[in-house]
Amino acid sequence: LLASLIARGLVGAKELQMKPKKLSPSKVKWLDSLWDKITMTLNHMLIPKMQGSEFSIPHSADLINVVAAVSDSTPLRRRDEISVILLSCASKCLEIAKDFPSRRDDMLQLFTACFTGTCKVDPKNRTLKEISDQVLTATILAVDQGCNQNSTLLNDVDVQACIIVCQVLQEAEGADVVAISVFPQLCRLIAVEWTELRKSIGHVLSKVDIGRVLAE
Predict the structure, then answer these.
(1) Predicted TM-score (pTM) of this structure
(2) What region does 148 belong to: left with phi over 0, alpha with psi -120 to 50, or beta?
């Protein structure tokens, strides 16, 4: 119920934000109050909690919709704080997925939502580049240790996260800068024998306009 309420409320907020010159002082104040509450609520909901003997982020399936709604509506003045919350959750999702295999699929789905959301909100975020670098570097190590064995790589969290990162970078607008920051790792992974991983890397490399990014 709360996830649905947040999503519907943010649709209305986005409509108001698209017409800033027509906003009355009372509506500006209302929007600021709304985003104060959204920020606090999102930060609390994305904190891992102990469930039985495992850490997890409760209601992760519903939170995917919340993250999508927030990232689609975030105004420029709230970009930094929302990005911090989403990227913190993305890092925690990877940790939980590695430590608790039973939570892997749920956490990777939420990681996808948070990583995608940050690409929408702030594609030039430094931490976004750092997470991409960590994931791809860990994937290189996993490939070297796994000797390109499909069964081993398929179950590796970093490899799965790498494929997710590549899919997001391929589709997200403005994420070229992130792809350029991990260009050496992408080049190393393009030669792997595992077809799914190689295709994901190839799609990113084919999309990135290196000349334009370097010129900018």
Answers:
(1) 0.89
(2) left
